[in-house]
Amino acid sequence: MLNDITTNDPLPKVWDENTRIGDMLKGKRGLVVGVANGDSIAFGCAAKLRAFGADIALTYLNEKSKPYVEPLAQQIDAGLLLPLDVSQPGQMQAVFERIKSEWGQLDFVVHSIAFAPRDDLHGRITDCSQSGFLQAMQISVHSFIEMAHFAEPLMNPGGAFITMSYYGADKVINNYNLMGPVKAALESSVRYMAKELGERDIRVFAVSPGPLRTRAASGIGHFDELIDMAVTRSPGRRLVDISEVGRVVAFLVGGAASGMTGDVIYVDAGLHHMG
Ligand code: NAD
């Protein structure tokens, strides 16, 4: 009987019903990791998060990539631009220490990075090296867990952690190879982290875009075939773009999605439904 259900715990107040959707991230602050250039999914996210009113901190991989990221940071008026190579000990901690001293708090983290050594990525999973497997897992999965570890004390109630996955986590996709089990581990981590962090009203998601022409994607063998397959098989016979991914991320980190956590959200124009 529905009427018998009573609770003394009101739902967390993270969404004001009078909020205009265009202002839904006003006053929120977040870190976006993974901008390499203007084609990066992370840049699509950062630009939309900014457009909906959030303050953004960006990172760049190293001095070589800084000149590509710096103008993009200026374009979206990023409050912070910091170096971060997640394979370098101490760098991630330094990023969060800086955020703590500048902002003192956070509302979201977007993790949009992945890496696998070329030989391991292009070969059969059966033949993949231990070192290549571990490196792919560290950069593409453990870095997300580590980010949540450092960010948790700064996160406001209603905050969100978002990572980028791909359909190859769930189904065998030609040439996705090693990244399949890596993304499967990432999606499973999302569910476990959602359970753990839910107690503090922090939500965790994986967003799973359809194929997009980016630097990382160009490392996947015969990537054009994935693009062709997406166009011929998706219900709308089209690709998605990074702004479409960014708008979904903005929705998820905002209070409008306060009733969701632990999900894998596909932004692939319906491709994953096709048999
Ligand atoms: P991208 O090349 O623009 O971004 C990848 C980012 O990973 C780069 O900014 C790179 O600097 C960063 N990175 C790699 N090693 C790193 C390290 N050690 N420390 C810090 N950063 C590091 O490509 P993208 O396609 O935008 O990739 C972003 C995410 O989206 C990845 O997780 C990718 O698997 C995922 N994804 C991509 C597609 C696609 O088709 N492009 C589809 C689904 C999911």
- Radius of gyration equals 19 Å
* CATH level-four homologous superfamily name: NAD(P)-binding Rossmann-like Domain
CATH architectural label: 3-Layer(aba) Sandwich
How many β-strand runs?
7
Count, helices: 8
Which structural category do the helix and sheet elements fall into?
A: alpha/beta
N- and C-termini, Cα separation: 40 Å
The CATH class designation is Alpha Beta
Q: What molecules are bound to this protein?
A: nicotinamide-adenine-dinucleotide
Order of helices and strands: EHEHEHEHHEHEHHE
How would you characterize the overall build of this protein?
It is a single chain. The chain is of the alpha/beta class and 275 residues long. The chain has one domain: NAD(P)-binding Rossmann-like Domain (Rossmann fold). Helix content is 37%, strand content 15%. A seven-stranded parallel beta sheet has the order 3-2-1-4-5-6-7, with helices on both faces. Strand 2 (55-60), helix 2 (66-75) and strand 3 (80-83) form a beta-alpha-beta unit. Helix 1 (41-51) crosses helix 8 (242-253) and helix 5 packs parallel to helix 6 (179-198). The longest helix is centred in the middle third of the chain and has 22 residues, at 130-151. The termini are far apart. The structure holds nicotinamide-adenine-dinucleotide.
List keywords for this structure.
275 residues; alpha/beta; Rossmann fold; seven-stranded parallel beta sheet; 8 helices; globular; binds nicotinamide-adenine-dinucleotide
